[in-house]
Amino acid sequence: MDIVLRATAMFAVLFLLLRLLGKRELSQMTPFELIVLVVMGDLVQQGVTHNDFSVTGALLAIVTFAFWGVVLSWATYLSPRAERWLESEPRVIIKDGILREENLRRDRITRREVESEMRLAGIASMRDVAWAILEPQGRISFIKADPGGEPSRQTAADGSAAT
To answer: Do 7 and 75 share a domain, yes or no?
Structure first.
């Protein structure tokens, strides 16, 4: 039972830590940050199992993490309020070609990062963007301004369709 309680506490700490890191930081990790994340995993394992190297201890810790992952997944599926709190909401960062500085600050995104994502999506100028939306997963979706006044769909920088 001790392992289950420690695993639950570590799950909560990791969840809060990842929420504090922000969307963009997680989607664009450097090699060093990836190594730090792997080392954190090892440190979490040591804290959860407390030198219990048994298969039972490892299984209990894994099942506890999986259990809380499924609980949070169901909570976001069943409750829009839980979804907003647990996964955050999409945020508009460009509207009608104008950068929304307050939203960039809120998510710690620089103008250079947005411009880089625009180039990856094949957009040369901010004037050509009707909407740019930072998605909860950290990607930026672009909806290109149509010369006729209507926005047209544009793919995100990773090749997926914009919303």
So the answer is: yes
* CA atoms of 130 and 115, how far apart (whole Å): 14
Q: For residues 114 and 99, give the distance between their C-alpha atoms in angstroms, rounded to a whole number.
A: 9
Phi-psi region at 104: left, alpha or beta (left = phi > 0; alpha = psi -120 to 50): alpha
Among 47, 63, 87, give the residue marking a domain's end: 87
Bridge partners (DSSP) of residue 141 are: 133
Q: Which of 87, 102, 134 is the last residue of a domain?
A: 87
Is 140 within a domain?
A: yes
d(CA 113, CA 111): 5
> Which amino acid is residue 110, in one-letter code?
T
**23: burial class by Cβ within 10 Å (0-12, 13-18, 19+)?**
buried
- The string of pLDDT tens digits covering residues 12-32 is 888 887 777 666 555 566 666
pTM above 0.70, yes or no: no
